[in-house]
Write a structure and sequence with these properties.
Layout lengths: L9 H12 L12 E5 L4 H17 L4 E6 L2 H8 L7 E5 L14 E4 L6 H6 L1 H22 L3 E7 L12 E2 L14 H20 L4 E6 L1 E3 L10 H11 L3 E3 L6 E6 H14 L5 E4 L1 E7 H11 L7 E3 L17 E2 L2 H4 L9 H15 L1
Parallel strand pairs: 1-2, 1-4, 2-3, 4-5, 5-7, 6-14, 7-11, 8-10, 9-13
Antiparallel strand pairs: 10-12
Helix pairs in contact: 1-2, 1-8, 2-8, 5-6, 7-9, 7-11
Length: 357
């Protein structure tokens, strides 16, 4: 069973095997348990679901994975190879009360609006999907008396931090203008985190918050248009990398498998009511530095760095310019460690994308 090929894409298959083989996770805690994952067709949710099934079969854990999705057809395309191995599709809408008769031991709530342009074009839906969805999952967790729950937040919950204090830990917060339409995402995440803390305090729901740095790797959708995907396509096509900002924004990143192992660590070892950063601090760089790194790593592609900054850049939903090193020391104290560096992240991403074409 350990040698089963789950995915045709070799890079994604390697990632699943890495998750299943990881000794960072106390896998026996999940033996015989049921795990519900919302947003299960998204990048993180889908890798979580597939990784759990792979680990379950490899290690003989008998984990039952409930993939909570909106689109049954899309879910069947993604998970068709997993439906005979402990994964079940549950169709529903997180903005409505969650209903399933199955007992649930653990929850990963990853469902969210994620497209930057939607934060500007659909700010009401962005906020309400976050708030209503989180409330419904917390109520469900309370009813089911789950052993643990992780809410997937974002580094954007920190807002714009003072550049003099750019090394950000879980208790550090910057500024968010609540009336700026782009804040629909970051303010929604902050409010949902507050709701998790309230449920942990008042109803003793064992919920933790995970704040992810920007995460990418094998498994991204073909329609993905965030900066890392644009850069990867430019290098693969041998075209120029075009920046629509000055490229000074500097953040940390995280490879998908490192993120999944981080989420599992928070689920099994995190303290209820607290937040944990998940990021690879070694990847800290500006967008411009990232582009320059790729041009150096792949000189044979002939890509150049070009700036084309529009006057109306705000309408594209770009996050505010800032420097923020998302400090993961707290999570590393629980035994987690990021292992994939930025050049390897792009190497794996582009090899994945090449096999998908």
């Amino acid at each position: 069973m350990a040698n089963r090929i789950w995915e045709k894409n070799k890079v994604l298959q390697e990632d699943l095997e890495r998750i299943a083989a990881s000794e960072q996770i106390e896998w026996e805690m999940l033996a015989g348990k049921t795990v519900l994952i919302t947003g299960a067709t998204g990048l993180i949710g889908s890798l979580l679901a597939r990784g759990l099934v792979c680990a379950s079969r490899t290690r003989g854990l008998d984990i039952r994975v409930l993939a909570f999705v909106r689109n049954q057809e899309k879910a069947e395309r993604i998970f068709g190879n997993y439906l005979d191995a402990g994964l079940e599709i549950v169709t529903g809408d997180v903005t409505k009360p969650v209903e399933t008769l199955a007992p649930v031991d653990y929850i990963f709530h990853t469902a969210s609006v994620t497209a930057s342009k939607d934060f500007v074009d659909r700010p009401v839906e962005t906020i309400l999907t976050t708030l209503k969805g989180t409330e419904n999952l917390l109520e469900f967790a309370k009813q089911k008396q789950v052993r643990g729950m992780v809410y997937l937040s974002s580094m954007e919950a920190y807002g714009v931090v003072d550049e003099a204090h750019y090394n950000v830990r879980e208790t550090d917060y910057g500024y968010i203008d609540p009336l700026k339409v782009r804040s629909s995402y970051s303010e929604g995440k902050r409010m949902a985190e507050g709701l998790c803390g309230a449920y942990a305090h008042e109803y003793h729901v064992p919920v933790c918050t995970a704040r992810l740095a920007q995460t990418f790797g094998a498994g991204i959708a073909k329609s993905e248009n965030r900066v890392f995907a644009q850069f990867a396509h430019s290098i693969m096509d041998g075209t120029d990398i075009v920046l629509h900002t000055d490229g000074s924004k500097a953040h940390c990143y995280c490879y998908t498998t490192d993120a999944v192992l981080g989420l599992l660590t928070v689920l099994l070892k995190g303290k209820s009511g607290e937040a944990y950063n998940i990021s690879n601090q070694e990847t800290f760089c500006s967008i411009r530095e990232m582009a320059e790194m790729l041009i150096r790593e792949y000189p044979e592609r002939g890509s150049r760095l070009i700036f084309d900054i529009p006057e109306d850049a705000d309408k594209f939903g770009y996050a505010p310019t800032s420097r923020m090193l998302v400090n993961s020391e707290k999570l590393r104290g629980l035994g987690w460690k990021a292992e994939i560096g930025l050049p390897q992240m792009f190497d794996r991403l582009m090899r994945y994308m090449a096999q998908e074409d």
